[in-house]
Structure formats: C-alpha cells, structure tokens
C-alpha cells in the first residue's frame, strides 16, 4: 500500500507517493503564480491549487495501481482566507498568509476582545497574516462579498472540499486563524461572538490524524483516485513539516529555511509567551501543542538577493554551469564571520517574530567601499540566521533548551549556511532523511489516520533517521557581537520603517 501527501504551497502543490516503509516513490510539483495587485497584498485564485492538485495526483498514479493507495494526507500554507458562497463557489481570490493589508483590522480585533484575552484564548496576538483580520477587512471593504459568505476555509481545506465535497479542518491549521481556542482545541465562541460572526462559517475541526472525508465520485473522475479513499485531516504546513522531521516529542526543536523561516518546538502543555512574541499552536500530534517563531523572509531573502544581484551567476547556470546559489555562497566562504561589519535585516515582507510589524523593511547596514558582492552575500545569510536565532532565544527563555536542532528547507543545501546555523545557535544541528518537508509529514499523518501506524510518534520512529550532523565550529563566538548589534537595529529603525511604508503607500 501507498500514501499520498499533498502540500498546497504558496507557489506550487507538492505531491508525494510514499511506500509502507516510508520511502518516497515518486513526487510531482506543479507550479503556479500568486498576485500582488497592490503594495502589501498577496492573492491567489484557489482553483489554481485544485488544477495543480489534479495534475500532481495523476502524475503520482502513473507509478502505481490506484487501488493500492491507502489514504491521502493534506497540508498547506496557513492563514489564507478562502470565502465560499452557499453553492461552494469562490467569492474572491484567497487572501494569503503573506498579505499584510489588514494590520488596522488586527488592532480593531484586539481592542474588541482585549490583548490579554486574545493571548489567553488563541495563544497569539492578532497578526496581519492571520485569517480573522482578513475576514474583517473583507467585511469593511467588500460588503457584497461578505454578505454572500457561507463558508470560510483554509487553502488545504479548499482542496479537501474539491476532493470530497465536504468541509473539515484540523486543529493545527485552525490555530492560525485567531478564531480557535488553542487550549481547548475548538472554535472560540468568545472570538466569534465579539466579532459578530457565525460559527456556521467554520468547518468542523478535528485532530490531524482523523479520517475526515473520502474521495468523491466527481474527484475520482478528475484525479484517478478510487472513490472512497480516506482523506486524513492533516495539518498546517509548519506542523506537518515538523512531523516530517520527527519533531513529535517534548524538547525536540527544528529550524526550517524555506521561503519563510521557522523555529519549532513541541510542547506537551499549552503555554504562551507572555508578550505573544512566539506562536502557541496546536500540534499535528494529537493532544500536543507547539511553540513557533516565524520570520517572513528567510531563504526568500536569499532568493530575492539572487534574483536582483545574481544575474551573472544565473547566466552561468543557464549556460550549463554551477547552480547560481552555490556560486554565490562559494564567494561568501572567503568572508569572515560578521561580513567585515556589514549586517542585513531580512524584513523584506515585514516581520512576524520577534517583531510583529508589517511595516518593517529590509536593509544593509554598515556598507563601505571595502565591501564586495561576496560580503553582501554572506551578510544576507547571517542576517537570516540571526533572525532565526531571535526565535530560539525566546524559546530558551521559556525553558526550551535543545541539545540538537533538526534543519530542513531549501536553504540547507548550503554547507556554509548549515555551519553558520550551528555556530550562531551554539548547538549541534542535524539533517534527517525526510527532505520533502510538509508533504512528507502529511504522508505520515495519512499512514496514522488510516490505521497502518498506531501513533505519529511510532510512524516517525520507523520512517525518519538522521543523515548528517553539524557541530558548532570555532567561529561561533565571533558572531556574538554582530548578533548583539543586529538585535539593536530594529528598535532604532522602527519609526523610519513606518515612515517609509506610509510614504510609499500614500
């Protein structure tokens, strides 16, 4: 038997076909764009996810007899708002996780409910990336859309609806809406009532390993999946990513270098960072929670840098030469820790942890005539690493002291970056065999949900193994003074960032 893990991502659907022993047999990654029609906006037509999902599943099924599929697990980008009418039709493009337009609505929700009450109920401050302020923005700016709403679903749950014609979500994904009572693991009447919204809008919420729905006849015809295959609840992409890395027990921590950057720690108890600087969400492991720090532009910062300043390296790659990223990092290897006094702030899309500020902006600080491209490259890598360390330091303040940190994400292809992470974290870092991230975690949840494994923990014990270890090196202490300067820069520049943002949008 086989399991399918589907990750409805920001720019692609990642689909994996995984065998009973945890081996990835085949993958497919159909891509699609998203739109930024105005500054701070990010939107996608949800039907592009469904089109890509159908394509991806058909590709996987070329490898096996469809009757051998035991279950489908779902994961995807969190926080997106998909509004549907009473016929299940999409009312407007999805407002995505990286959309920052609703910052004023965050303040309005917080004032209505109370800051301390919001933190107690939802485990997090209300942030512009979350779902609730997006709904309020639609209510205020698109009343005709708002009045037609019958269901609000998250991105992966729209795909679930297209696969099954039913509405469900899971506790880990729902934790990012600002509408879930995270401690109770159920929708919050207090939050919904304060906003005057109907609980009927929200799909039924379950634990991540629940077999929620089954493949419908209509979806079977378009995907090739047999009718009746169970669709497991799954999880938000970060919780599924953590499962795919084996972060399924107290004390285990991961750091993910994807488009966004995430530091993730499982917690057996519901606990909240007093100032709300860390996310407290339900985990995809039933009955467990997690702490999470998120920076909005991690490897995404390096991608931006490559796209804007790495044209020479990209041309060489296009002509059959080395990978453009590898060329850039090779140059950075000759630069000492601290980039000779150059610091990069990676706030290209605003920031979330530890500065929940949609107006934060990226910048290089300390440029001189001595600095070359190789210095800029290293400064970008170091700035992202410092940003991730901000989250780890907050966790350490809550008593999380990991002996080892599991690394994942596209940025970990760089040996330099992995060593930098170990040095700045002052912790052993390791890689595991499951490199496909959230989609692999969704497959783990599928295997548990259909009964082939007794628990998420046992599935991870059987499927996931360590493949590489990176110990802190002698340069570790060299970063301390530069990290201290890095931490001082946002408070100093906050007002400037806000003035620039307001000027650009006026």
Keywords for this entry:
single chain; 506 residues; alpha+beta; Nucleotidyltransferase, domain 5; 2 domains; seven-stranded mixed sheet; six-stranded mixed sheet; 23 strands; 39% helix
Structure description:
This protein is of the alpha+beta class and 506 residues long. The chain has 2 domains: 2-245, Nucleotidyltransferase, domain 5 (2-Layer Sandwich), CATH 3.30.420; 294-433 and 474-505, Nucleotidyltransferase, domain 5 (2-Layer Sandwich). Helix content is 39%, strand content 20%. It has a 7-stranded mixed β-sheet with strand order 17-18-16-15-21-22-23, with helices on both faces. Strand 21 (404-408), helix 15 (415-425) and strand 22 form a beta-alpha-beta unit. Helix 12 (311-318) packs across helix 13 and helix 13 packs across helix 14. The termini are far apart.
């Amino acid at each position: 038997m086989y399991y399918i893990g589907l990750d409805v991502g920001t720019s692609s659907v990642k689909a994996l076909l995984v065998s009973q022993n945890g081996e990835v047999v085949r993958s497919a990654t159909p891509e699609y764009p998203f739109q930024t029609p105005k500054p701070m906006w990010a939107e996608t037509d949800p039907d592009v996810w469904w089109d890509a999902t159908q394509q991806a599943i058909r590709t996987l099924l070329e490898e096996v007899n469809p009757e051998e599929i035991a279950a489908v697990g779902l994961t995807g980008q969190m926080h997106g708002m998909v509004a549907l009418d009473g016929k299940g039709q999409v009312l407007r493009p999805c407002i995505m996780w990286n959309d920052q337009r609703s910052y004023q609505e965050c303040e309005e929700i917080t004032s209505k409910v109370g800051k301390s009450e919001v933190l107690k109920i939802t485990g997090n401050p209300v942030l512009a990336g979350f779902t609730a302020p997006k709904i309020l923005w639609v209510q205020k700016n698109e009343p005709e859309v708002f009045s037609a709403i019958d269901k609000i679903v998250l991105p992966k749950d729209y795909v679930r609806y297209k696969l099954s014609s039913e509405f469900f979500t899971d506790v880990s994904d729902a934790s990012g809406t600002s509408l879930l009572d995270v401690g109770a693991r159920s929708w919050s009447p207090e939050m919904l009532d304060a906003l005057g919204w109907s609980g009927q809008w929200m799909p039924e919420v379950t634990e991540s390993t629940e077999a929620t729905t089954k493949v419908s006849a209509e979806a079977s015809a378009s995907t090739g999946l047999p009718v009746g295959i169970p669709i497991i609840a799954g999880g938000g992409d970060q919780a599924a990513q953590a499962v795919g890395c084996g972060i399924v027990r107290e004390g285990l921590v991961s750091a993910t270098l994807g488009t966004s950057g995430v530091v993730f720690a499982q917690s057996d108890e519901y606990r909240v960072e007093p100032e709300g600087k860390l996310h407290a969400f339900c985990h995809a492991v039933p009955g467990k929670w997690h702490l999470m720090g998120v920076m909005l532009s991690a490897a995404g910062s390096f991608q931006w840098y490559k796209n804007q300043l790495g044209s020479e390296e990209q041309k060489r790659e296009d002509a059959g030469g080395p990978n453009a990223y590898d060329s850039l990092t090779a140059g950075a290897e000759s630069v000492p820790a601290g980039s000779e006094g150059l610091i990069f702030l990676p706030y290209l899309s605003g920031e979330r942890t530890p500065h929940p500020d949609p107006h934060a902006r990226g910048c290089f600080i300390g440029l001189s005539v001595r600095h070359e491209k190789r210095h800029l490259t290293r400064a970008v890598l170091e700035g992202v690493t410092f940003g991730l360390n901000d989250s780890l330091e907050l966790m350490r303040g809550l008593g999380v002291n990991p002996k080892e940190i599991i690394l994942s994400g596209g940025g970990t292809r760089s040996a330099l970056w992995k060593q930098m992470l170990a040095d700045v974290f002052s912790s052993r870092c390791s890689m595991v065999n499951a490199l496909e991230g959230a989609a692999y975690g969704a497959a783990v949840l599928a295997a548990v949900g259909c009964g082939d494994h007794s628990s998420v923990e046992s599935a991870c014990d059987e499927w996931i193994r360590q493949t590489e270890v990176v110990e802190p090196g002698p340069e570790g202490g060299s970063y301390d003074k530069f990290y201290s300067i890095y931490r001082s820069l946002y408070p100093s520049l906050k007002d400037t960032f806000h003035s620039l943002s307001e000027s650009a949008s006026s």
